[in-house]
Amino acid sequence: MKVNFILLSIFFGVFAVGGFAQEKLTEEQAQAELVKVKEQLKLAEEKISSLESEISNLKSEISGLESRREELKNKLAELKETWKKCQYGRYKVVEGDWLSKIASMRNVYGDGKKWQLIYEANKDKIKNPNLIHPGMVLLIPTLETYTVIPGDCLWLIASYLSIYSDAGRWREIYEANKDKIKDKNLIYPKQVLTIPHE
């Protein structure tokens, strides 16, 4: 923008001298005007060169900032994943456990078919899904939704390892499902509840 303004200024300066002058210039005056225009042109070229250098520096800076932004986005994704894992329940393996047995426990998933969720979350310690050892502490990924089974109540659901591992957080489930739960003390089998995770 500045470059265009400078070039226009020079053009109009020259045009004013040549186009609007009412009197004829002597050769000396014409030479003096030409020297002036050459000086202005030189200054303009120097300014353009300076601006081009500035633009190049800004482009380099932008490239560096974009690269940094990508690094930060990746770091944020890692931190979100780590935070998610911090919310997971924990289960200590005992003699006679296997993944589908753990998954089928009421306080885990109540469904043996969900063993793969446990396996995927613990691949760093489980090399073979058919081989787990007593004393291992496994992460139990949390559920986004939960289907009520007979005998459930909100505080019991909140205490499950796949929910919050904390009965005291039952109110969060209640608040997120007020459209389905009219009475916090009354929920029904097969109701599908949303489990909020901040």
Give a verbal description of the structure:
- The protein is mainly α.
- The protein is 53% helix and 7% strand.
- It has helices spanning 2-19, 27-87, 99-104, 115-121, 154-159, 170-176; strands spanning 89-92, 137-140, 145-147, 192-194.
- A two-stranded antiparallel ribbon has the order 1-2. The chain has a two-stranded antiparallel ribbon with strand order 3-4.
- Helix 1 (2-19) packs antiparallel against helix 2.
- The radius of gyration is 37 Å and the shape is elongated.
- Residues 17-22 have low confidence and may be disordered.
Summary keywords:
198 residues, Membrane-bound Lytic Murein Transglycosylase D, Chain A, elongated, mainly alpha, single chain, two-stranded antiparallel ribbon, 53% helix
In a few lines, what is going on in this structure?
The protein has 198 residues and is mainly alpha-helical. Helices cover 53% and strands 7% of the residues. It is built from 6 helices and 4 strands; from the N terminus they run H-H-E-H-H-E-E-H-H-E.
Based on Cα principal axes, name the global outline. Answer: elongated
Strand order of the largest sheet: 1-2
Instruction: Please give the number of β-strands.
Output: 4
Helix content: 40-55%
Q: What is the chain-wise order of helices and strands?
A: HHEHHEEHHE
Give the arrangement of secondary structure elements.
Blueprint: H1 2-19, H2 27-87, E1 89-92, H3 99-104, H4 115-121, E2 137-140, E3 145-147, H5 154-159, H6 170-176, E4 192-194
Antiparallel strand pairs: 1-2, 3-4
